[in-house]
């Protein structure tokens, strides 16, 4: 049975698609999870990353490694057809990640979110977002209550991203969210250029790609911490031992 999650919030530009991009590849290659990403976002940024950014690298990789595969599947998908994908017995994934548009109006987003085992809300610590993010999480709290009553497992968590170390707003955001009794991850992603260069082919834990994308030990540590907290909180299988980092060991064919 696949676990279904979504990175969702009430506005655009808060890092939902980036979280999916940064985490999906390492979860597949380093943690051995079978993953599908359903891109239901207007910008189709994940589909475009695969079709535009990764396609050339993949073709080049295939020249030296004809059996190379993308580490996970990406589907352009419609919000109102989420259950068609989830209920299809042929879709045998450990984890399905839904990238949704950044809005809270309209039932289609919330219907899609009710299909999730967990909704993860990017927490960006600027004042303007704080109240509306908390409002969005309070709506998720209501969904959770309804799910609890129906004995359906539904979780939601805040996940800090675009974090700037030592900035007081970060602590204030944590205290604000904790003060509202809303749950959040202990791990987080910093505000880093490397995350804007995430690929659907290579993981930022792949040393060659990390070098190319400007990744550092900090980015690797951050990504690993978030991956492991996600696996633990969702009860996903941890196949690190068996994960054959097939794609990631091959030298990246970036020119
Ligand atoms: N952790 C991060 N560090 C640096 N830039 C980020 C980070 N997360 C997102 N961004 C940048 O913020 C912008 C919006 O991110 P995006 O993932 O497209 O947001 P959303 O999907 O919520 O609309 C993009 O330019 C992206 O590169
Ligand atoms: Mg997006």
Automatic annotation (TrEMBL):
InterPro entries: DNA_Partitioning_ATPase, MipZ, P-loop_NTPase. Pfam families: MipZ. This is ParA family protein. It comes from Hymenobacter ginsengisoli.
């Amino acid at each position: 049975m696949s676990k279904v999650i979504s990175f969702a919030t009430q506005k655009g530009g808060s890092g939902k698609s980036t979280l999916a991009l940064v985490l999906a590849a390492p979860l597949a290659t380093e943690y051995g999870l079978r993953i599908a990403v359903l891109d239901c976002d207007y910008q189709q940024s994940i589909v475009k990353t695969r079709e535009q950014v990764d396609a050339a690298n993949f073709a080049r990789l295939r020249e030296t490694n004809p059996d190379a595969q993308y580490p996970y599947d990406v589907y352009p998908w419609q919000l109102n057809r989420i259950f068609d994908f989830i209920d299809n017995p042929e879709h045998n994934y450990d984890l399905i990640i839904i990238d949704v548009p950044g809005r809270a109006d309209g039932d289609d987003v919330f219907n899609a979110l009710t299909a999730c085992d967990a909704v993860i809300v990017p927490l960006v610590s600027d004042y303007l977002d704080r109240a509306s993010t908390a409002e969005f999480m309070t709506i998720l709290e209501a969904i959770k209550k309804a799910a609890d009553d129906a004995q359906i497992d539904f979780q939601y968590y805040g996940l800090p991203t675009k974090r700037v170390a030592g900035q007081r707003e970060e602590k204030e955001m944590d205290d604000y969210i904790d003060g509202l009794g809303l749950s959040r991850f202990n791990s987080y992603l910093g505000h880093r250029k490397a995350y804007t260069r995430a690929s659907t082919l290579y993981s930022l834990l792949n040393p060659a790609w990390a070098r190319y994308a400007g990744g550092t030990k900090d980015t690797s540590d951050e990504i690993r911490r978030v991956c492991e907290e996600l696996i633990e909180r969702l009860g996903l299988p941890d196949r690190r031992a068996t994960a054959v980092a097939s794609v990631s060991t091959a030298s990246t064919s970036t020119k």
